[in-house]
Amino acid sequence: MSINRFSYGRSRSDLWRQLSRIGKYPILFFICFVLTVGCNGNRTQQNINSTINSNRISVGTTLKPRTLDPADNYELAGLNIIYNTCESLYTYEVGTTEIEPLLATAMPEVSEDGLTYTIPVREQVTFHDGTDFDAEAMEFSLQRFMQNGGKPSFLLADVIDTVDATGKYELRVNLKQPFAAFPALLAFPGACAVSPQVYQIGEAEFKPNIMVGTGKYRLNQFKSDSISLDVNQNYWGDKPANEGVNIQMYAGNSANLFNSFTTGAIDVAYQSLDPQQIETLIKDTENIQVIEGSGTVVNYLVLNLKQEPLDLLEVRQAIASIINRALINDRVLKGQAEPIYSLVSTAFDAYQPTFDSLYGDSNTAKARELLIKAGYSTENPAIIEIWHPSGSITRGIVADTIKAYAERELGGMIQFIPNSVESASFFGNLSKGVYPTALVDWYPDFLDPDNYIQPFLSCSEGLSEAGCETGAAQSRGSFYFSDRANKLIEQSRQEQDPAQRKAIFIELQEILAQDVPYVPLWQTKDYAFAQDYIDGVVINPSQTFPFWTIDKLLDSETSQSQALSR
User: Fold this and answer.
1) Is residue 254 part of a domain?
2) Does any domain span residue 258?
3) 359 contact partners, CB below 8 Å, separation of at least 6
């Protein structure tokens, strides 16, 4: 610090001496000053014009990637970049949950036993470094994803037995057990092709700061606060609608993201603004565009069947009956969510609102009847703790809302007690059965109804009386066990016919609503905001964000005047 202060003092005295000398020639000084400011002003104007007149898109976000290595990235910030620069065998049609081939040329051919998938891969594709893509490169990439031991490695390692290039453009994958949702796993952005000339297979052999894939964009720069993507001029398919993307990262500071967007410093804002900021921007639709996406993140209340009084079915059903989703959405979530009546996202046609059919919303009469049947009354109330992570203000308010509404409507027959604990302890305690109930959200690993059913209802070891001892339901904190649900899940994973799979998922949702190990509450909506001269912004249900669809609609002169007027 002393060095900086000395340096500053010396510079200031030098400046005064220079001004004193210049003062002898006031006219000359004035002319030079005007010329200097004018020239700098022109350069600033030229920079602004250059930025506006180009068709590069500026995107602002609070998310910062931990790594860009597909084999180690399990967070949305990095997956969004990977999604735009790297390509997997399969993907989802933009804006939908419909799977389509990408580096594959067709959907896989599946053996009768459901264990072998034969996949034709695309020809005439090159990586960003010029290396040719073929089946061997895809085999290398999938092997690396599984063997390097990154965060998402289990997604494929738990399912795949072997993967081999059986031809220059043919891949064969053998599974450990039948899994009809396997193409959805292959659509996970991290299961993409990477250049064998740049990456290596080996435990923890990761390259966090580069990306060499086959995608529409190639990584230009990855800095601490920004990422620059250029168009891949050698891309095998259709080119992006823009000339590149500049991503400004505000490191968790939603206020800076909000201000940058409202002042026109960025073209698009996505992930994540707080509810109040979103509400403000939604009201300003005359000047900006609001892009709303139906998210796939579900929020629910888990009920621990091993703790009293939740071991009684009537109490669980009473809780399902008294929940007022509309109240939670309006009062707490500011209308920025969608009430949901199953754990399966509404993005899938397999979604069935079974909780609405059985219990409705805020069905006070039914809740009172069930509590009386279970032996509870105002004098003998059912007392139930609701736990949530202390860092989640939203869940805290939701817990308080459930408590207040139940007290008002049921006169104290059921008493909810909100409690919180820091996040690390919260998630660790769930699987230990510490909490009677807890407010939790679920981010799907892949887009298939299976990923909303199996992680909640499946149990590998347990009994109806003792509950789930080991398995998915135990790790979620419900300890639910159903032999029927286990058999249906296994059947759904073997079934290749979409109509039959849907019928199985519907029955599983009916079982979920009848037994109530969880109460679905709401599904988050996703929001992006774009300046009014921007076109083509789309939010995928997976929360990935395709940059290549975004374009600037207006001519340079109009765009310039709008941006400069902000």
Assistant:
1) yes
2) yes
3) 317, 320, 321, 323, 366, 513
**CATH number (domain holding residue 304):** 3.10.105.10
Two tokens, residue 230? 């250029």
Residue 458 is part of which domain span?
A: 296-524
| Beta strands, E only, 430-493 | 437-442, 461-463, 467-470
Same domain, 230 and 333: no
Q: CB–CB of 90/542 below 8 Å?
A: no
CA distance 161 to 178: 11
Q: Are strands 268-270 and 518-531 parallel, antiparallel or unpaired?
A: antiparallel
* Token duo for residue 34: 């005007």
- Residue 180 main-chain phi, psi, to 5 deg: -65, -20
d(CA 234, CA 250): 32
Residues 160 and 247 in one domain: yes
Count how many residues are written for the chain: 566
Average pLDDT by stretches of 10, the chain with 566 residues: 30 33 36 36 35 81 96 95 98 95 98 97 98 98 97 96 98 97 97 98 97 98 97 97 97 93 96 92 89 92 97 98 97 94 96 97 96 97 97 94 97 96 93 97 94 97 92 97 97 96 98 98 95 96 94 64 51
CB distance 194 to 213 below 8 Å: yes
Are the beta carbons of 172 and 166 closer than 8 angstroms?
yes
Instruction: Give the tokens for residue 108.
Output: 């896989």
